[in-house]
Amino acid sequence: MVLWQSYLKNISVKMYLTTRLRKNKFLILRKWVSVIHNFAYIIGLFRQLLTGVPITLMFILISWIIGFALSGIITLGRLSPKKYFSFPLNTLVSFVRSVPIVLQLFLVYYGFPVLVEKFIGVNINNINKMVFCVITFSIYYGFYLSEILRPAYLSVKQEQRDAAFGLGYTKSQANIHVIIPQMFSVAIPSLGNEVINLIHQSSILFVLGTVDLMGQADMIITTDYTASPLLTYFCAGMIYWVITIIVSIIIRLLEFRIDRYQVDDVKGGRTI
């Protein structure tokens, strides 16, 4: 009797262990299937989001080029001794720096077509929305960057200007060959920070319905009811992070290259 009970007990234990092992294998298999499925979903999500990256990068490049060129003109106007040049520009700089960029975007989007139609008689309401975005950010960074270039220009020592004039340079030649190169060695770090700020602020473009990176993320969430908003925005943030890292590396290399030719009259005692 005792042997029979022991035999039944061993069989029960073996059956229990076998069943438990099968369940564990099944659970492990389910977990791996879930991981693979989630990984495939995340890869697909990144692929969808990356379709908006070229638009974002193109917008950043165009806005920065136009804004930087505009900032040079604004800086010259603000440095002018003539008040009818400098005073209006200083007032506009104060306005642009004080008003949120998203509000400026709406002002340009709704106000610019009205002005064009009133003074030129052309209806531009059907124009691509990205044009209004480029106009807004170019104006914004044109005035904003002048706040970096102006003090950088004034930071160049008067002795450098006097030396250039002593060598027979005209004012424009002195600016091109002496003042501006030294000015940029001072301004590059701040300009680099503004490039990164432009990358971050470009994320508001989706409020006008543009299909940039953030617009693509918003479209995924609104059109796919199974999409996770948290995961979608997290993946978009990862892409912005990678873009920012790449741009930061480029800026650091540019700073290093400029610093190699920067005049250091304290350590080197050399003049150029």
3D structure, described in words:
The chain is an all-alpha fold. The C terminus is likely disordered. The protein has 9 helices and no strands. The protein is 81% helix and 0% strand. The chain has one domain: MetI-like (MetI-like fold), CATH 1.10.3720.10. It is flat, with a radius of gyration of 30 Å. Helix 5 packs across helix 7.
Helicity range of the residues?
Answer: over 70%
Number of domains: 1
| Superfamily (CATH H level) name | MetI-like
Q: Please give the radius of gyration in angstroms.
A: 30 Å
Overall pLDDT confidence: 81
CATH class: Mainly Alpha
List low-pLDDT spans.
25-29, 263-272
Give the CATH topology.
MetI-like fold
CATH architecture: Orthogonal Bundle
Briefly note the structural class of the backbone: mainly alpha
- The arrangement of helices and strands along the chain is HHHHHHHHH
The number of strands is 0
Shape: flat
List the helices and strands and how they pair.
Layout: H1 2-50, H2 53-79, H3 83-98, H4 101-119, H5 129-154, H6 158-166, H7 171-201, H8 213-223, H9 229-260
Subcellular location: Cell membrane
Transmembrane segments: 32-50, 56-77, 89-112, 127-145, 231-254
Pfam family, one: BPD_transp_1
Task: Give a concise summary.
Belongs to the binding-protein-dependent transport system permease family. The protein has helices spanning 2-50, 53-79, 83-98, 101-119, 129-154, 158-166, 171-201, 213-223, 229-260.
